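fold-stage: in
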Amino acid sequence: MIVIVGAGLSGLVCALELAKAGAPFVLLEQNARVGGRIGSFYEDGYTFDLGFQVVLDNYPAVRAYLDVSALGPRYFDPGALMWDAGQMFTFRRPKTWTDFSSALQTTAGRGLNWGDKIRLGIIGAGLLARNDETLLNEAFEVSTKRYLEGFSDAAFERFFRPFFGGVLLDNELETSATLFRYYFKKFLTGQTFLPRFGLQAIPDQLARRLPAGALRLETEVTAVVLEQGKATAVRLASGDEIELDQLVLTCPERVTAKLIGAQVREAHPAAVVYFRAGQSIYPEKLLVLQTGRTKIVRNLVQITNVAPEYAPPDVHLISATVLRPRVTPADVAAAEQEINRIFALKPGTLRHVRTLEIPYAVPVQPPGSVFTQKFANPFPNVWRCGDQISHASFQGAMESGAVTAKTILDRS
């Protein structure tokens, strides 16, 4: 019997691969829903995703494991709106690397130099010449910020910090340059979308493919039973025990630490503040970025421009990402004021409807981090999975689950 603890994306894909091979398993999830940090809450006709995340359609695992058309994908236009020094600039993603520097010049308005353009060309050529695995295995022992040091302040502050500060949930861009390079290529070559009924539709779709009885929700694992250096069972909050031959831990790191004593890394927090409006505040299907590091709102989007299903008819839903673990009423008011200032809205146009906080949004991934599956098993039949040992993304989660299942099957 194989026991999987945690029904996030990696646990679900691991379970699907085991089911395909006919291996006996059970998937245990302490919450009443699947998905982990990928999920949505539904209230009064609104869809509130657990943090602002988008799906990249060029992730191989997305194509392999998801029926994208059944999700009702609602696509963003490629690019972003950039609010800088009291002006709004539109950055449209270029179709080729040849015109990327001119697109960025339009975004930044002024100030880019020829050195920026040359560096962009060099980076672009290098990224396009490498496949994903090569990019992730190239260990850049520098941070993203250090990697971008050759660019002008205008390029850094008007594009790289606001965009990738939101992508990496790291406003200082201390994340490994390896991960930056991987994401940069993905965003420039793929399209981003949201499922019409929220991110929860993704894990729900995976869960529906599991054999009957294989998934047990609201089932908390409180301990791992160890005998002679191996895991022999898991103990549930109910007091019951489930005997096992192999154990997969794809739960949050703090839970893994509790169960087997693994180290818990620091994490980047995030929160999303949702506002509603009776009028559209802008028409484009684009994310809005703010330059500078001191803003409350790192990025925002009027989600109903992309997915009208996220709100009741004639209402618009705005999602504002805040890079802090806790959001106070003063923070909500400050976020509202920032949005009002950007779009010249009258006070009272926006109404706060919900705040969702994610204290452990993604683990800190500094230079030297490993972004392809590397097992470091504390016990011979215990496997950690997900962003505990891979990169924090849809691709990293699902691929990790598949690799873990294959490894267990190969050794059985």
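fold-stage: in (second)
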Amino acid sequence: MKRRSQLRYDLRCQTTNQTREATVSMKISKSEVHWKARALPEIRFEDQQLTSFAGLIVFQPLFERLQLRQRLRSCFEHLKVSPIFGHASIVMLLIVHLLIGYRRLQDLRYYHDDPMVRRVLGLKRLPDVATVSRNLEGVDKTAVKQLRCLSRSMVLQRLRQLAPARLTLDFDGSVLGTTRMAEGTAVGYNRKKKGQRSYYPLFCTVAQTGQVLDVWHRPGNVHDSNGARAFILACLSEIRQILPQAVLEVRMDCAFFSDEIVSALEALGIRYTISVPFERFVQLKLRCEKRLIWRRSDRQMSFFECRWKPNCWSERRRFIFIRTREPQQRKEPLQLHLFAPYEYGYQFKVILTNAKLSARKLLALHNGRGAQEGIFAELKSQTQMDYVPCNRRSANQTW
């Protein structure tokens, strides 16, 4: 007990001494507290090199490695007019414009004095909106054609480096609506805004990489398959030159269901899957109605296949009839306090193909073309595809 009481006393003494030392050290003089300031502070105006787009520094060596500026200049060499801001610099500006998240030309004013943008572009000052618009108006058809060749060659160069054993190409069109009376626009199919003028370009996308191989610009009043055969064969020819040993696959919707396109694909040895316009052929409906035995693939899907041809076709081909069991949508009012069981029905689909795959694998392959709609959605919402900036067709094609 004596030892414990002695220890407590020693600890109390040590704590008291430490508190006194801390109290003594906190004492400061008045001269350390007060300060007399008579002169006004000096104000200097300096040019601060601040940027909101520091991430652009990553793209500067990429542009140099690709020699993008030199390759763009070669696309406009035939133009006699040489403005202060060359066409190559304007196109480079538009590329950076999209990289930093802007879409409309009027958005140039938000970064007009940004030093990082000027550094990447190699310019001491950026052009205004009117200059960019006038420069785009000066682009002709030859320049647009060469820009398409440049874009296509860059995608093909990347595919040559990857060297995939199988390459899948998707072909489809997308509506680009506008309120302008722009050159080359027309009133055509527009499910969202009927009667609006639009372009209706045809796209070729690479499923494995998500890249756009080529775009064929068309007015909005044409059918999806109008002149598509030449465009499809041109894209396949370019791919075949760089990947002679690869297996090429083509996926298309019912707009490309024609004997002319199918025969051309078979002549080149291309594997294809094409949706069949089921509602146009009464014979196909009768086959589904009269069919009693369906081969079951899983709990939801059953199928059968046959060799058939429309009356105007030259030969019979493989058609896969697929039905899937799905819950039907209720359109009548629903009483929430009552139990409403699902009512199931069948959805039918017919696919034309020359691929030697089972129905289940074939359906998975063909449904993969829905990823192209995701590419269109990204191009329209995140970049420039859904925006028509000028009245001239060549300017809009360049954009």
